């Protein structure tokens, strides 16, 4: 049986996190920080800087896109 391919779009957006024994989580960057930044407040831009995690209801979908 051939190897499964990783989705290129997903590998650019998500990173698998979690060591042995801990549940698998996926790290992602927050949206709305690419352009039109002048109208956004400093506080809002600062909050968008931090790391975010994929929600529990979407983890099974991301696992299918990133098999390895």
Description:
The chain has 68 residues and is of the alpha+beta class. It has one domain: Factor Xa Inhibitor (Irregular). It contains three helices and three strands; from the N terminus they run H-E-E-H-E-H. It has helices at residues 8-13, 42-49, 59-65; strands at 14-17, 25-29, 51-53. The chain has a three-stranded antiparallel beta sheet. Strand 1 (14-17) and strand 2 (25-29) form a beta hairpin. The chain is elongated. The two termini are 16 Å apart.
Rg? 15 Å
Query: Do you know the CATH topology?
Result: Factor Xa Inhibitor
The residue ranges in which pLDDT falls below 50 over 5 or more consecutive positions are none
CATH domain class name: Few Secondary Structures
Number of strands: 3
Structural class, from secondary structure content?
alpha+beta
How far apart are the termini?
16 Å
Element-level helix/strand string: HEEHEH
Helix content: 25-40%
What portion of the residues fall into strands of 2 or more residues?
15-25%
Describe the strand arrangement of the main beta sheet, using strand numbers: 1-2-3
State the domain count.
Answer: 1
CATH architecture: Irregular
Please tell me the overall pLDDT. 93
- How many helices? The count is 3
């Amino acid at each position: 049986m051939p190897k499964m391919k990783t989705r290129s779009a997903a590998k650019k957006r998500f990173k698998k996190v979690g060591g042995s024994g801990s549940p698998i989580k996926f790290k992602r960057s927050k949206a709305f920080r690419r352009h039109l930044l002048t109208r956004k407040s400093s506080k809002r831009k600062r909050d968008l800087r931090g790391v975010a995690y994929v929600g529990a209801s979407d983890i099974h979908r991301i696992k299918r896109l990133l098999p390895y």
